[in-house]
């Protein structure tokens, strides 16, 4: 019990996480047990290796990038708070939330934040722009190996041309948002978390 | 709305034609041989007397003009009825406004009513189209195949649970609820319907629970309701046809029994599941067999559509043989085979298949609504105020309640729950239609109150179709139901959507949850590894992103062609060329060039340089955007570019020979200037012009080297 006591979840923690992310009590406890089962080193934080041990994630084309999204800039460990904060992006947007006053700032699962999460999956160097190379890398991962580099390049070029409005041959976040304005992002980037 | 005379006349004419034509249809026409050479007139509404078409043995006069109606009677009458229904459909679209506000089903029923009225006043009977066999074997399969084939698969499978929930449980709820309430009403002496047993009530209830999607879906599409609602209504209607037919058979069987025991009920429930699952498995099997067959039809493209139809119909018939759900069989068959078949068959076959399915389905649907109208007038009705009005009331009530309750139960399991507006749309969109009508009509005569049931069904159908069908559109608009934006497909959409799907799948794995993404992923792997290898002829697994990209590029190329088609002339406008001459070195006059032009041989096939073409097409959009009209630079570049694009890529006729030369000249001249202004243009224009030039030069030597 000794060294594990610090990693047990306290009520105050649960309350804070609830306020910050909007998850319910049961969801938080469930996700905590999941966090704990992933945490092989039992130090209250997850490292990249812990994530990579999940088999389905390893074969997901975007696995590495998703894992990367959990770790803030420069850090190698993510604690439970950080874990929940990232997962909060995927909470479904409820109708009554849409109209609520945002007194505490924009909720983590708002449309903009969801889009920002997706944007960061492309933008590895965090310069707020998706360059052609970054796009190519992602395309290569998603499309597979049957396509020639040239054709992939054409697709990337076309993608940038469709989205780019200021002519800098990169997709900025605002252009990204604009190009996806007709897509039902709230539905596509949402998971029904089990209780 | 004031109709001017010109608009009115074709429509009135059409109506007259329809009325006159209807006079001829219901009647039997006499055929006889004239014994004299004068042509005989046939009064169209005279009763038939079976005259002997064969001449008497002693008759030696050769009839010059004979009519043999009985021989062609049946196909003739079928054709005319179908034609009449089609005229009605054409007639509606003369006025756009009508079809926007009034669903087509209403209009068809109205026309049917009119025709029925005419026939009734002539004491004619409508053709016996709605026998059990005719409906279930000929008219229902096309409708169901149409629905199954055009079901959007991805949203369907994502909402599979919800669809099944509403279809199966919802229909059961409706049937049982309405049945019990009506039985309660029957107990009340006032209405005089005490002889209707519980089983018969259930039977009637199951008939009026079947909802019909056509009118509602058109409205939904027009106002672009969000995808979830659309697919749930679509799927529910499709599957509840199957459920209703099963229930109908079940209650039919039960109604014939004197005493119902508990054991029977359990057997029936078990039978229900067997029927449903059996139909599904059977359909899937047939779907795979069809896909497998199309793998080998590479050399016989003409019969590909036929194979699809035959297999689907066969699935339906054999399912009927085995008394499992034939509707499920044909729907699942269409669903499974579509993906593989569309990769195996040629483009033309694909179009043919889609077109024919839509056509036959639409004809079937039209005919049924039409006959609904006709039969309403011409049958003997039994009217019972209490029973029928309560039936209508309960039908609406139970549906509303059902949707409410069922949504509350299923919402926690959905990612995006249904809000009240969605539920209203679902409940109010429950129009009854074709299937109810046919089932009522095919009730066995052993049911004592068959006429009452038919009347009741017709009332419910007409009420829902007219009142609900007409008002649903303004209501949904008023309520501002959640919409989806019908966006044009862009490659960005596809890529980012795919990214999001992968992300969500990854996060779900991370959280240790299973969801439909997991199953979808598993299925796609199985599909790619095993199924595609067996069922598809040339297995080049292509990412949907690449497929979409190709499609979009092709669309753009076609757009360019369409835009320029009005603009092609043998020589570019002189103005742009005068500009050229003013800034560049002195130029050979075109007249000189033309005169010295040697006529081509025909065989100036351009090298099929794919890369150049692709680059051209891709840069086209950006070039158009970046070039401003009005500037000299723009005008000339635009002109040259357009010409080059067209002539190198698409035009291969001798007529444009001169233009090729001109382009080459212009290219060379501009090359010097353009390289400074627009490296971009200089980059590719030389490519395509070079191609042209090479060909020309190779044909005619270096005469035109500048």
Automatic annotation (TrEMBL), chain A:
Superkingdom of source: Eukaryota
Compartments reported by the entry: Cell membrane; Cytoplasm; Nucleus
One of the record's GO molecular function terms: calcium ion binding
GO biological process: protein transport
Assigned GO CC terms: cytoplasm; nucleus; plasma membrane
UniProtKB keywords: Calcium, Cell membrane, Cytoplasm, Lipoprotein, Membrane, Metal-binding, Myristate, Nucleus, Phosphoprotein, Protein transport, Repeat, Transport
Gene3D superfamilies given in the database record: EF-hand
Annotated EF-hand domain residues: 26-61, 110-145, 151-186
Key word Repeat present: yes
Entry keyword annotation includes RNA-binding: no
UniProt family annotation: Belongs to the calcineurin regulatory subunit family. CHP subfamily.
Record PANTHER family: EG:114D9.1 PROTEIN-RELATED
Descriptive protein name: Calcineurin B homologous protein 1
Source species: Cyprinus carpio
From TrEMBL, chain B:
Membrane topology value: Multi-pass membrane protein
GO BP terms: regulation of intracellular pH; sodium ion import across plasma membrane
Sequence segments annotated as region (Disordered): 37-59
Membrane listed as a keyword: yes
Membrane-spanning intervals of the chain: 12-32, 78-95, 101-122, 134-151, 163-190, 202-223, 229-251, 272-293, 313-335, 356-379, 385-406, 426-447, 453-476, 660-677
Protein's cellular compartments: Membrane
GO cellular component: plasma membrane
Ranges of residues in domain Cation/H+ exchanger transmembrane: 83-477
Signal peptide extent: none
InterPro entries for this protein: Cation/H_exchanger_CPA1 (IPR018422), Cation/H_exchanger_TM (IPR006153), NaH_exchanger (IPR004709)
Single GO term (MF): sodium:proton antiporter activity
Matches recorded under Gene3D superfamilies: 6.10.140.1330, 6.10.250.1040
Keywords in alphabetical order: Antiport, Ion transport, Membrane, Sodium, Sodium transport, Transmembrane, Transmembrane helix, Transport
Main location: membrane
Family: Belongs to the monovalent cation:proton antiporter 1 (CPA1) transporter (TC 2.A.36) family.
Protein name: Sodium/hydrogen exchanger
Organism, scientific name: Cyprinus carpio
């Amino acid at each position: 019990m000794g060294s594990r006591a610090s990693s047990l979840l306290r009520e105050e923690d649960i309350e804070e996480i609830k306020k910050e992310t909007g998850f319910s009590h049961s969801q938080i406890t469930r996700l905590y047990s999941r966090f704990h089962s992933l945490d092989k080193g039992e130090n209250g934080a997850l490292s990249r290796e812990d994530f990579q041990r999940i088999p389905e994630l390893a074969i997901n084309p975007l696995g590495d990038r998703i894992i990367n999204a959990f770790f803030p800039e420069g850090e190698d460990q993510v604690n439970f708070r950080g874990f929940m904060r990232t997962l909060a992006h995927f909470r479904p947007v409820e109708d009554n939330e849409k109209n609520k006053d945002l007194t505490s700032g924009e909720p983590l699962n708002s449309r903009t934040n969801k889009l920002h999460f997706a944007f960061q999956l492309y933008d590895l160097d965090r310069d707020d722009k998706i360059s052609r190379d970054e796009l190519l890398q992602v395309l290569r991962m998603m499309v597979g190996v049957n396509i020639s580099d040239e054709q992939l390049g054409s697709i990337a070029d076309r993608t940038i041309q469709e989205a780019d409005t200021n002519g800098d041959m990169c997709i900025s976040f605002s252009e990204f948002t604009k190009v996806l304005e007709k897509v039902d992002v709230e539905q596509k980037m949402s998971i029904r978390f089990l209780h | 709305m004031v109709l001017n005379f010109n608009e009115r006349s074709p429509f009135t004419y059409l109506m007259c034609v329809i009325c006159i034509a209807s006079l001829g249809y219901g009647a039997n026409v006499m055929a006889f041989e004239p014994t004299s050479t004068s042509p005989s007139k046939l009064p169209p509404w005279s009763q038939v007397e079976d005259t002997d078409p064969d001449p008497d043995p002693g008759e030696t006069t050769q009839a010059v003009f004979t009519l043999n109606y009985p021989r062609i009677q049946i196909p003739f009458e079928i054709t005319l009825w179908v034609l009449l229904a089609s005229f009605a459909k054409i007639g509606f679209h003369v006025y756009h406004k009508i079809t926007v506000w009034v669903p087509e089903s209403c209009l068809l029923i109205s026309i049917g009513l009119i025709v029925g009225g005419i026939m009734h006043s002539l004491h004619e009977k409508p053709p016996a189209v709605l026998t059990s066999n005719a409906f279930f074997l000929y008219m229902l399969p096309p409708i169901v195949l149409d629905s199954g084939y055009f079901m959007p698969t991805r949203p369907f499978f994502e909402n599979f649970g919800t669809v099944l929930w509403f279809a199966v449980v919802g229909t059961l709820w409706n049937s049982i609820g309405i049945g019990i309430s009506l039985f309660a009403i029957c107990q009340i002496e006032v209405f005089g319907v005490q002889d209707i047993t519980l089983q018969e009530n259930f039977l009637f209830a199951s008939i009026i629970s079947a909802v019909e999607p056509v009118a509602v879906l058109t409205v939904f599409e027009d106002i672009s309701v969000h995808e979830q609602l659309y697919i749930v209504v679509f799927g529910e209607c499709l599957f509840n046809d199957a459920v209703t037919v099963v229930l109908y058979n079940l209650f039919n069987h039960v109604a014939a029994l004197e005493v119902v025991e508990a054991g029977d009920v359990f057997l029936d429930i078990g039978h229900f599941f067997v029927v449903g699952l059996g139909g599904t498995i059977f359909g899937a099997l047939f779907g795979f067999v069809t896909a497998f067959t199309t793998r080998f039809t590479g050399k016989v493209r003409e019969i590909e559509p036929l194979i699809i139809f035959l297999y689907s119909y066969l699935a339906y018939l054999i399912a009927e043989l085995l008394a499992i759900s034939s509707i499920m069989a044909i729907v699942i068959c269409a669903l499974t085979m579509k993906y593989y078949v569309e990769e195996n068959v040629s483009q033309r076959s694909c179009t043919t298949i889609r077109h024919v399915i839509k056509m036959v389905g639409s004809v079937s649907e039209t005919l049924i609504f039409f006959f609904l109208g006709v039969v309403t007038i011409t049958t003997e009705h039994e009217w019972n105020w209490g029973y029928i009005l309560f039936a209508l009331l309960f039908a609406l009530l139970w549906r509303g309640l059902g949707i409410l309750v069922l949504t509350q139960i299923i919402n926690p399991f959905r990612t995006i729950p249904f809000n009240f507006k969605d539920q209203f749309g679902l409940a109010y969109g429950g129009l009854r239609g074709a299937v109810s009508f046919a089932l009522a009509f095919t009730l066995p005569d052993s049911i004592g109150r068959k006429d009452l049931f038919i009347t009741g069904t017709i009332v419910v159908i007409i009420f829902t179709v007219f009142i609900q069908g007409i008002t649903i559109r303004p209501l949904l608009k008023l309520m501002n139901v959640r919409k989806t934006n019908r966006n044009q497909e862009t490659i960005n959409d596809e890529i980012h959507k795919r990214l999001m799907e992968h992300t969500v799948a990854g996060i779900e794995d991370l959280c240790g949850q299973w969801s439909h993404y997991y199953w979808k992923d598993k299925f796609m792997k199985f599909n790619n590894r095993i199924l595609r290898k067996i069922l598809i002829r040339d297995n080049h697994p292509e990412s949907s992103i690449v497929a979409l990209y190709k499609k979009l590029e092709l669309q753009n190329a076609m757009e360019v062609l369409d835009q320029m088609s009005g603009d092609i002339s043998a020589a570019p406008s002189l103005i742009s060329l005068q500009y050229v001459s003013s800034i560049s070195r002195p130029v050979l006059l075109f007249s000189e060039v033309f005169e010295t032009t040697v006529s081509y041989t025909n065989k100036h096939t351009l090298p099929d340089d794919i890369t150049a073409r692709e680059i051209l097409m891709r840069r086209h959009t950006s070039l158009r955007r970046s070039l401003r009209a009005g500037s000299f630079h723009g005008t000339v570049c635009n002109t040259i570019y357009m010409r080059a694009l067209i002539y190198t890529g698409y035009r291969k006729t001798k007529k444009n020979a001169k233009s090729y030369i001109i382009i080459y000249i212009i290219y060379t001249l501009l090359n010097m200037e353009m390289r400074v202004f627009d490296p971009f243009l200089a980059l590719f224009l030389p490519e395509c012009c070079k191609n042209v030039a090479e060909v020309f030069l190779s044909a005619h030597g270096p005469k035109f080297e500048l």
